[in-house]
């Protein structure tokens, strides 16, 4: 009787410790940091919903939607942080947090995308893979928005996502 | 009666100077039934040998000894021993559980390092904590679609001039 109980306790502890090992993305950290603000709004599309969305895009006949589906296939989650007022302040705060989180996050710049190395495009890399992509609204924008995508991404994904 | 000689012998006896013959005289003297009061108190000292010689083992001595020996023999049935038992919190199952967890984590980490760059390049986010804003996939798809479109429109371009334009587009 004792052995199964011990085994179950061990498995639960193991699962708990593995579960708690995950890290948080930029959007979550930013929202935690400004939890008291009523201006900020965060929309979350988690992995489960992302799978449902993918199924929907598979049923679509529209090529644009199908292309979107092929892009989303590489994404695990997507978060959109928005603020309708004080766009410049929120943008500065977001950039400050990203700067503070270096080298976890770094500015993404290639010849094709963000060639001037502006602070609107940030990535988090693991090895050669991009695991998180953050795109912020321009400094001149009236509203602040930051899109935070996680998944197994690469340069091609970024190129495709910005392909006009 | 003059007991001066006996008193002299006694004095020598106390000084341990008497010969065996003189001590035999003293024993013979004290065996008498009538002794003067001043010497009677020493009687027991000199007649103890005679008294001891009269002492013998009783007829039941052997039986008593055998009974004692039987009593001293160890019993064939084990005697229950009473021990004080201290109640304490048993940590053994928890130690085992901790050991199993440690082993699982160690093997997991080792496997992660061993098998493949792919694993180490995978996202390490705690997706279990992600709470979807929308319950309807179509609404979520619309939101994602418009976000991606906004990204495309507002894409940081190859030149600073394009970037400024993109910013304008996002604003719209």
Describe the structure.
The complex is a heterodimer of chains A (164) and B (172). Chain A is an alpha+beta fold and 164 residues long. Chain A is built from six helices and six strands. Chain A has a six-stranded antiparallel β-sheet, with helices on both faces. In chain A, helix 3 (47-59) runs antiparallel to helix 4. By secondary structure, chain B is mostly helical. Chain B is built from nine helices and no strands. At the A-B interface, helix 1, strand 1, helix 3, helix 4 and strand 2 of A face helix 6, helix 8 and helix 9 of B.
Question: What is this structure's SSE topology?
Answer:
The complex is a heterodimer of chains A (164) and B (172).
Chain A: H1 2-19, H2 26-33, E1 40-45, H3 47-59, H4 63-72, E2 75-83, H5 87-100, E3 106-107, E4 121-126, E5 129-136, E6 144-153, H6 155-161
Antiparallel strand pairs in A: 1-2, 2-6, 3-4, 4-5, 5-6
Helix pairs in contact in A: 3-4
Chain B: H1 4-14, H2 20-30, H3 37-40, H4 43-54, H5 61-72, H6 92-114, H7 117-120, H8 137-153, H9 160-171
Helix pairs in contact in B: 1-2
